[in-house]
Amino acid sequence: MGILSFFDNNNKMQCFICGNNQSDGSKNTCYGKLCKECISILENRGISYRDINQYTENQIIELRNDTLPPIEKAELFIVENPPIKLNKNEKCYYEGIACGGKVKTITTGYTGRRKGTSIRITKGVTYHTGGSEGRAIREQILEQSSPGRFFITGNRLILQTNQYGFTIAGDKIDSVTVSQQGLCIYSKDKCYYVITDEVSKIFNVLNILTEATESENERKEIEKEAAQQKKIASPSAPHQSGADEIRKYKELLDDGIITKEQFERKRDQILGL
Description:
By secondary structure, the protein is α+β, with helices and mostly antiparallel strands. Helix content is 34%, strand content 28%.
């Protein structure tokens, strides 16, 4: 084995994020080895080492950073030139393959009908017991559309499919939950389904955008409060009384700068005559 081969193998043993070369608890990923500590930190951020291939290498490295502000986290996911029409200043943060879905109730079978037992109590009087009618057996299934595209922007969630597609404004979303099939998005007592293999990434992007929005709103609130405090602290211009204004125009009249008619018109205006 040559010297260069040794160093090449040694680099492969290092964590591609932090450079740690301890093999205990490490995992191999599409970008290289990932150490136990980085695995733990990323999992706390909602990223399993099994899902790392859904992210770019730069996204994984930057999301490992404890001090990265929420706004900069969101900027890591900006999609350049997405195949949808964006509004002014609107940015796309996720694009991927997904299906729509709708819950339907179907009949899967029927229970058997039982005849029961007839008991003769007296002449002309018979008691029937134990009989039952057959009943339909029903269950709910999630019917899905053919694959389409799912987008997350700073303002909307958009699913483009042949069936069950939707566009929901961000401020109309009540909650988002994760199911085995994908995401359940609740808005105005209605559930919209997104069936996808990238559930954890989508959920993570939504959380990052929520943090970024809260951080931006907090920053604006601080700036607004600071501006109000500055306005209160700044001295206001001294109030000039009507008599002072008339005196000022009288001096202009005495100096020949304005005519008597101009002075009288201004005086009457100040006095409200």
